[in-house]
Specification:
The protein is α/β, with parallel strands linked by helices and about 450 residues long. The chain contains 16 helices and 12 strands. Strands 1-2-3-4-5-6-7-8-9-10-12-11 form a 12-stranded mixed β-sheet. Strand 9, helix 14 and strand 10 form a beta-alpha-beta unit. The radius of gyration is 26 Å and the shape is globular. This is F-box domain-containing protein. One of its GO terms (cellular component) is SCF ubiquitin ligase complex. One of its GO terms (biological process) is SCF-dependent proteasomal ubiquitin-dependent protein catabolic process. InterPro entries: F-box-like_dom_sf, F-box_dom, Leu-rich_rpt_Cys-con_subtyp, LRR_dom_sf.
């Protein structure tokens, strides 16, 4: 909970006007962002001119793991006699459910969306629906004193209880669409009600045109019809992650591609077992700006999948930079030949003396699992390894532009951003039946204007 919130309204120092009160709030906020939390709190207690930009930094992100912190914070926000509208300063909220500490309820959600109208990002985590089992007490006292509870947890890890064992309470998520017109990031973790009516109602009313990033993790009751409705009401989505056992079919993927089209840049599917070439061909046709594609638990059946779909994605998605496939047994040498052609051309474009392309341009990360043995020994893959960072670690460093190329610009709260591992250049490209390939750094420095 922000430490200054309870005292800011009655601080006598607010009448003091410093000499720098002519600085605009935007400049003051940029200055305060470089300071520590304690320093920002002191700046907020100086005067009203400094208080507003300082309070916006203090209140912009709230994370709750205990009920008492939530109650204290929203008791301050709900006050009507405060000097500052604290609710308007809140931009992102993360709430973690744990029955012994904090239980997310319908009343809690209504309080959040009704008092924080400028909310931009919200994350609800139900990964621990129930607390761990209690330790059984013996009728006879032990000979030695038991260690503290935290030490017992480290020595004897308890079984993690997932939402598959029980259903979570349905929440009035439709109020997010009604009361939060600026929402752009939404994350639901292990939200498993008996049906997905609440998510469908939210998708129906969440049509402000601001939603850009969604992540559903472990939402096993989530239906494809709900995802299709969300895509139709929010065609501007750029970042979509559907992780866990939620089945994604061709019809859902095709709708995402047809509705989001050029806006879609980041797509991660955790259960891609039902996808066929139809889904990949539509992604290649409609989503030419796709930059990141990760597919897990894919089907290796040659009758439903072929390398033709991914070849079209490599050809037509010119912005593709990251490609991850957990089960790539259905990929043949033609796919790697197309990748080799693209990597060579893009490296040539970047290494041109007068090229203005950044070093991070092009395909620079491929992670494939369960690759066939004949592919691992093919000459095409050996040529691709020659263009990897595994053979180029002497010319690179952890501080160069290429090392940070994997970080998504404008990092989104609550969303995962895969970065280049610091030891990637020291690892073999082929490990077992998996391929972990990272493109080498361009050898020609970029021309500066």
């Amino acid at each position: 909970m922000p430490q200054y919130a309870a005292t800011g309204a009655t601080n006598p120092d607010l009448s003091y006007q410093p000499m720098s009160n002519n600085l605009p709030p935007s400049i003051l906020r940029r200055i305060f962002e470089q300071a520590s939390t304690e320093e920002i709190i002191k700046c907020a207690q100086t005067c009203r001119h400094w208080a507003i930009p300082a309070l916006k930094i203090i209140w912009q992100h709230l994370k709750f793991i205990r009920t008492r912190d939530f109650d204290r914070t929203f008791a301050i926000i709900a006050r009507k006699n405060t000097i500052f509208p604290y609710g308007t300063f809140v931009k992102s909220i993360e709430i973690i459910h744990a029955e012994r500490e904090l239980a997310i309820s319908s009343q809690m959600m209504l309080l959040v969306v009704s008092l924080c109208h400028d909310l931009e990002a919200i994350s609800l985590n139900f990964s621990n629906v129930r607390a761990g089992p209690k330790m059984e007490q013996s009728s006879t006292p032990p000979k030695k004193a038991l260690p503290p509870p935290q030490m017992i947890q480290h020595r004897v890890p308890t079984k993690t209880v997932t939402t598959a064992d029980t259903h979570t309470q349905p929440l009035p998520l439709a109020h997010i669409g009604h009361n939060c017109p600026s929402i752009h990031t939404l994350r639901l973790d292990s939200y498993v009600p008996k049906n997905d009516d609440s998510i469908y109602e939210m998708a129906k009313y969440l049509n402000h045109g601001t939603l850009r990033n969604v992540r559903f993790t472990g939402c096993t009751t989530l239906q494809g019809s709900t995802l299709r409705k969300l895509a139709k009401t929010n065609p501007q989505m750029r970042h979509i992650e559907i992780l866990g056992n939620t089945p994604i079919t061709d019809s859902t993927t095709v709708t995402l591609a047809e509705e989001c089209r050029l806006n879609l840049q980041h797509l991660v599917i955790g259960n891609a077992y039902h996808l066929t070439d139809k889904a990949f061909l539509n992604l290649a046709h409609y989503c030419s700006n796709l930059q990141h594609l990760s597919l897990y638990n894919t089907n290796s059946d040659a009758e439903s999948l072929s390398e033709n779909g991914l070849i079209h994605i490599v050809k037509k998605c010119s912005s593709l930079s990251v490609l991850n496939i957990s089960n790539a047994r259905w990929l043949g040498e033609a796919f790697f030949e197309e990748v080799l052609i693209r990597v060579k051309q893009q490296l040539q474009d970047v290494e041109e003396p007068n090229s203005k392309l950044p070093a991070s341009y092009g395909l620079h990360q491929i992670c494939l699992g369960n690759v066939r043995r004949e592919i691992l020994r093919s000459p095409t893959l050996q040529k691709l390894i020659e263009l990897s960072s595994y053979l180029d670690d002497s010319e690179t460093s952890d501080d160069d532009e290429y090392s940070t190329a994997f970080e998504a610009p404008g990092q989104v709260p609550f969303m995962s951003n895969e970065t280049l591992p610091p030891n990637a250049r020291k690892m073999n490209v082929v490990r077992g039946s998996s391929i972990w390939w990272y493109r080498r750094q361009p050898r020609v420095s970029q021309a500066t204007n």
